[in-house]
Write a structure and sequence with these properties.
This protein has two domains: 4-63, no CATH class; 68-324, no CATH class. Helices cover 44% and strands 10% of the residues. The chain has eleven helices and ten strands. Helix 2 crosses helix 5 and helix 8 crosses helix 11. The longest helix has 23 residues, at 79-101. It is globular, with a radius of gyration of 20 Å. The two termini are 26 Å apart. The structure holds zinc ion (3 copies). One zinc ion (ZN) binds at residues 45, 47, 53, 55, 63-64, 66-67.
Length: 327
């Protein structure tokens, strides 16, 4: 994410801030210029007081471009649910920002569009599966609880599990439908990711019941990616977003970079040279991991980009560029 600055005093700000810590000015994030503006000059999102959404609205609607993607909000009968929902929406605003920067559509001509149901199991009366169906993404509210999520991360043998990661993965399923057209891209897709016509439900059931948990980290970015070609695509799509978003943030840091790297950082979301993007990512990911380790923390990016995984990422990059250029 590009560095945000206070519109009043030019101090650096983070994406989630409502008030400048230096001069006290109330601010809103305006999703059209993608900048912080003085809150007094815009209409705030109707969720500002309730969950701290700091975005403004621009077209007479009550909610901002991120909040209005939420179709169902969780039961707000407890303070805990309200606090968890706040975290869910905070992660979702970062996803919405990514999609706007990638210039990807939120809806497709068939009518499918991105929408979110954020559900808590105590309301539903049954367990909630985070998942996707034709643009509708269900998020289990308890994934916003750090202790619950960490326990699941360990249970599912994952090196990384975050709310933002869930959003980037689930929206990847929608973009498979939106970007991989059946006439042209499906053949290349199958060459790279395998045959997605394999029964999805039974592939997922098989995945969860496998007794042998060994898998090829040369061929896949994560263990879950081995479940089905659609999951492999969604995992790879999420990684593409991790990479361009984090590089975009790196563009505002005081790093010493050569000219090509500086050029890539002008707009990693729109960079056309995949090799340049990846070369820069490898040095940034390495640096983040080393910094984290110096703080006694786990790696920020605990993944290995093998030649096969790079090939898959390259395919995602091509599919996004193709959609942006009108197919
Ligand atoms: Zn300020
Ligand atoms: Zn909002
Ligand atoms: Zn998935």
């Amino acid at each position: 994410m590009k560095q945000l600055i206070c519109p009043q005093c030019r101090a650096r700000m983070v994406f989630e801030q409502h008030t400048c810590t230096q001069c006290g000015t109330l601010v809103s994030f305006d999703s059209t210029p993608l900048q912080m503006v003085r809150a007094a000059t815009v209409v705030p999102c109707a969720n500002r007081d309730l969950i701290g959404c700091n975005w403004s609205v621009d077209d007479g609607l009550p909610y901002c471009r991120s909040c209005r993607l939420t179709r169902t909000i969780p039961n707000l009968g407890s303070d805990r649910n309200l606090a968890l929902w706040q975290k869910v929406e905070q992660a979702k605003r970062r996803l919405t920002y990514d999609l706007m920067r990638l210039q990807l559509p939120f809806a497709v001509p068939s009518g499918a569009h991105i929408a979110f149901d954020i559900l808590s199991h105590e309301t539903a009366g049954h367990s909630i599966m985070t998942g996707h169906l034709a643009g509708l993404i269900t998020i289990n509210l308890s994934e916003a609880d750090d202790a619950v999520r960490e326990a699941r991360r360990a249970t599912f043998r994952e090196p990384y599990r975050t709310l933002l990661g869930h959003f980037r993965h689930e929206v990847g399923h929608f973009y498979w439908e939106a970007l991989i057209d059946q006439a042209q891209l499906i053949g290349p897709f199958r060459l790279v990711f395998g045959d997605e016509s394999a029964d999805y439900a039974s592939a997922l059931a098989d995945y969860h019941h496998r007794s042998d948990r060994s898998w090829s980290s040369d061929a896949f970015i994560s263990e879950y990616a081995t479940a089905h070609p659609w999951e492999d695509w969604a995992e790879t799509f999420a990684h593409f977003l991790h990479i361009v978003s984090t590089l975009d943030t790196a563009s505002s840091l005081p790093l010493s970079l050569d000219e090509r790297a500086q050029h890539t950082l002008d707009d990693p979301y729109l960079e056309r040279d995949f090799e340049a993007l990846l070369a820069l990512w490898e040095s940034v990911a390495y640096s983040m991991n080393e910094l984290n380790r110096s703080m006694g923390l786990s790696d920020a990016y605990p993944f290995r980009l093998t030649p096969a995984v790079r090939g898959k990422l390259h395919f995602v990059h091509l599919a996004i560029m193709r959609a942006r250029n009108g197919g």
